[in-house]
Automatic annotation (TrEMBL):
Pfam families: MerR_1. GO terms for molecular function: DNA binding; DNA-binding transcription factor activity. SMART domains: HTH_MERR (SM00422). Keywords: Coiled coil, DNA-binding. The keyword Transport does not apply. InterPro entries: DNA-bd_dom_put_sf, MerR-type_HTH_dom, MerR_fam. This is MerR family transcriptional regulator. Residues 4-73 form the HTH merR-type domain. Residues 84-111 form a coiled coil. It comes from the Bacteria.
Length: 126
């Protein structure tokens, strides 16, 4: 028998709130989740994996509209090329953010070095 998870456990594993899990399912970002006879959601290992990837996309700044588009594309096996394009475009944006952050880090390090040097000079140790 395969492992299933309650919504609370799925939320804990994914880092999303229960409201977000419901929203993602309602908006088609997340495929429909299996339910018990009583109507309670049960998340599979595949669902948890999907949530993990959605978390990655969200944490890297993918806008909700693109998350929705990705969810729509995932429901059709004939959209692999479109999914690839969407993810490549997003990855390029992430790389640009990384490059910008690295430049900002370089500037911070430069200023930190200047302050260290200035403090050493004033203390007479330079």
């Amino acid at each position: 028998m395969s492992t299933t998870y309650t919504p609370a456990r799925a939320a804990a594993l994914s880092g999303f709130t229960l409201d977000t899990l419901r929203y993602y399912e309602r908006e088609g970002i997340m495929p429909a989740v299996a339910r018990t006879a009583g109507g309670h959601r049960l998340y599979s290992e595949a669902d948890i994996s999907t949530l993990g990837f959605l978390r990655c996309l969200r944490d890297t700044g993918m806008p909700i509209e693109l998350l929705k588009r990705y969810g729509q594309l995932c429901r059709d096996d004939d959209t692999l090329a479109e999914r690839l394009d969407l993810l490549r475009e997003h990855a390029a944006g992430v790389q640009q953010q990384i490059d910008e952050l690295l430049e900002q880090q370089r500037r911070l390090d430069e200023k930190i070095g200047w302050y260290r040097g200035e403090l050493d000079r004033r203390a007479g140790t330079a």
